[in-house]
Amino acid sequence: MADENNQPKIDPLKGRQGVHAATRDYINLIEKQNLYRVSELVKHRRRTNLTGLGLFGLVVGIYTYTIYAVKQEKFLDDFEEPKFVEKKQ
Question: 47 vs 82, which has greater pLDDT?
Fold first, then answer.
């Protein structure tokens, strides 16, 4: 295991001085595209999380309402067994 204090510090801009200008421009273009892609992914993740929370809230609300509605039903509380009627022979 390497100690974090012993890790070499890398400067990504340091090595670009000896690189051809067209290659540097291409690297910069790719970095901009990557930053845009990452920002879009962050937005997408945020929307996904909000949608998940909304659906979770809806499910909890429906479950709570169902439990509350079932507790109010009284039709089985005064249930009497039916009286048997004897058949005439």
Answer: 47
